[in-house]
Amino acid sequence: MKALKKALAIFGSAVAVIGIAANAMSALAYDPVDLKDRASELENGVINLVADEVYAEPGETVTYRVMITNNTGYAPCGFALVYDKALQPVLADDGVKPALEWGDGSYGLMRSYSVNLDEHLIGYSSMGTVDCTKDGTIYSAEFVVPADAKEDTVYSLTLDVDKFTNAQTDPLTYNVVNGWIRIKAKEETKPTTSVTT
Length: 197
What we know:
The chain has 197 residues and is mainly beta. The protein contains one helix and 13 strands; from the N terminus they run αβββββββββββββ.
């Protein structure tokens, strides 16, 4: 019984340390804009394809999402994320393609992607006999922000849609919301005054 209590205590301590480390990392990490704060850019009654808006520090590696909201269902589609040439995509182990992570917004579909590093774009395509109707991240990629970036610099990322249909190949009405990565402005500190008596 003592051994079990000791093991649980060690496990609890490890979880606490991991939690503290995670909080410390999130305090230093990039800061994506919540979609609720972008409501004016979204349209009701149509599918919204949304490129992330992210605040970052110079030299930081950020996770950048391509998202879908108000998803009534899509299957075959093709579009490209065109990114600012100053951004450096993080490549997969093959050293050729960016490392992508699939999300719920493309769940159940046959997904593929291509890349043109010279044209600064990541192409996404999907196929399926059943529509994906989930909202959320279609995929996320990582980009490295220039180390010499100046505060308030904005790096544009845009979505260029070639095809967007449902499983019956009917064209869908959609709204494209482009995004950016913006370098955080330094917080202003108020001058302090001291009073001597």
